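Q: Convert this sequence to structure tokens.
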Amino acid sequence: MPTFQELFEKSAGKPVVYKGRLVMMSDDFPVKGTKCVQLHFEECNGEWRQGVALSCKGGFRVNDKAIKNGLVLWQDTAPQVVTMEVLGCPQTIVVRNVWDVGDGVIHSWHNGAAMIPEPLPTGYRYRCNDGFADEDFDDIVFRLERVVN
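A:
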């Protein structure tokens, strides 16, 4: 099984190419000038609880509630589509997948964790591995898209 943690340690956390595909620990999703984004949960096949962590300078407004800096959305409790206003003037949103093995801890960035970004016209689809080392990239699959009015 692949050990993405070792690959990321060797690359100092930078994206790596694995079997011809770009694989990363997290992504800097460009949002300069974007007022609103949507997260779409598409698929969840992980053994553990799966989620998405988003953070940026300024934060987000979700359901009329301002959230400074960042938030975690869990696939099992969030709506399938979450619309968020981007607060402030950030250049990027840091996107990473997270999971909870049942200990109440938000895990990320270790063991087999990695994500493959797929460009879309208004954003990216992310195919993610959690901390169980495999290469199926289907533990959680989600899209993050800029809302264009």
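The first strand starts at residue 16 and ends at 18.
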